[in-house]
Amino acid sequence: MPKNTTSVAPHLRRLLELLASDAPPEDFGAVTAEARRSGADPRDITEVEQAAGTALRVRSTLRQHRRREAELTALYDTAGDLAALRDLDAVLRSIVRRARMLLGTDTAYLTLPDEAAGDTYMRVTDGSVSELFQNLRLQLGEGLGGLVAQTARPYASPDYRTDERFHHTGSIDAGVLDEGLVAILGVPLLLGSGSGGKVIGALFAADRAPRTFSPDEVALLCSLADHAAIAIDTAKAMADARAALAELAEANAVIREHSAAMQRAEESHDRLTDLVLRGGDVSDVAAAVAGLLEGDVAVHDSGGRPLTSTALDGGTGVGAGADAESAGSAAGVDDAAALVAAAEESRAAAHAVFRGGRWVCAVLAGQELLGSLVLHGRPDLDGPDRRLFERSGVVTSLLLLLRRSVAETENRVRGDLMTDLLTAPDRDPVGLVDRGRRLGVDLNRPHVLLVAEAGAAVRERLAGAAVRYLFGSGSVSAEHAGAAVLLLPWDDGGPGAAARAAATQLAQLVGAPVTVAGAGPAAGPRAIADAHAEASRCLRAMRVLGRDGGGACAGELGFLGVLLGEEHDVDGFVAATLGPLLEYDAQRGTQLVQTLHAYFGCGGSLTRAKDRLHVHINTVVQRLDRVQTLLGPDWNSPEHALELQLALRLHLLSGS
Length: 656
Known about the structure:
Structural class: alpha+beta
Distance between the termini: 173 Å
Helix content: 55-70%
Shape: elongated
Strand order of the largest sheet: 3-2-1-6-5-4
Number of strands: 16
Number of helices: 22
Radius of gyration: 53 Å
């Protein structure tokens, strides 16, 4: 007899509907219970029960397929992320987020080793709410994560807080407790396979309630960890590749720069060599270096005075002396002492130095400082340009040596002229002027004559120092009567200023005090010889007055200057000595000069002076106080009083 399926059909149809809607398992059991309540035949009930069991198995299979499909989709998406890897952090965040989603955990996180600190740290977290947990650090072997990193094997704990398989520490347990985690699954991030695999981190999924992780879930997290390991390794490889490319690009740039520098150095060397071979001067070298380095270049002597100067517009060099001061405008108002100090520093370092907003390179002949090469406008002077600047200093030293050798030869000839000027100026004055013109010295122009003297220990060095001091200026020096004689073009500073400047510079060159006396202006052989006689007398007076190591002219020695000077400038001496008193009397109608004359005439007696002047003694005292205010507190010192008395007598004799 055929089976009657009419009574079970509604129940079977209901099972199919439940299966289609992915209903929970308890709904399938409800269909069997409904068949029993409907009074169905026992054979039908058995049929429904068997159908319900089959439906549950189909449901489980479908759920497994759907889960596997989701896992494969996630792995596929992760692989796509790796293929388009741009930002490692973004890929790692995506992997951790997918791990949390696929395993359905409350949180997921990934740790990486810190090689510098020797531990591991949280690199990425998803679902975490605890700052303490997010900043947690684990030592190798500590906690579940430390054991995963140490053994390179996955570990799962349904309740980490009570799991004794792991080494618990206060910091780790505090972080886990603060996050509220209970069940934790951790898998290693492995590069390579087998015993040669290297652990580069760990991936975790965790719940805030007890949970047992299935083998499928462990396998899924391991697959995601493999992708994370690949992402990290790929990112590292790409970073290494970028670094290698950057190093290669840098090396290529260095090679190109070196090649360009070599070519430029060769061209510069050829250019400077050609200048020397064509008989170029230091001004030509300065102009060439200025063009090569695109800056302002000046050559200074060993005392810091400018010898040449060039600008970017190609200005020409000029000689030292009065004209050289204007040439120094390209270098600004450089302090000569600071420039000499910078040149000494360059000599000690054997390289150019940057001081005071300028590059300074010592120009040397062996260890002797001939001068300095100064570059303005290039604070960023790089290696090749700096070496070019230093090589230019070598070329400059060769030219300065040659120039000095020529100057010394010329100076010997000029020295013969100077000797004839001082010993026999009237023998052939026209011939002397003609000889001077051939040597580049116009004796008919006003000149300052200086006589310099140094101690016996350094006297032999003074003549050479005078040559170096006048080097490049077109002036003349000679050794005469144990002293150095210098003939310089006249300038507005006068003989006293010229003497002081020479005393300072010659002392630096000699290394000992030098006393210098000046006279002038003098034009023509006889006037030059007379100026020499006056300067010699002034030098002797300076020794008597104890003014060794200084510079002065006769007019600056008070009444001695009146006696020593060729012009005997009495009016100038009186004005210099009594000027403030004469002016005061003229403006106010007072009698300070008369009172001072009476005071000295009475031997410094106030009582006798007031009788001679017919005034009260207090008036004399008040007038002398005014004299002290005008002339200074030392007006009554022996030396000053002598000059005042001489000036008073000369004033009365003149009838002024």
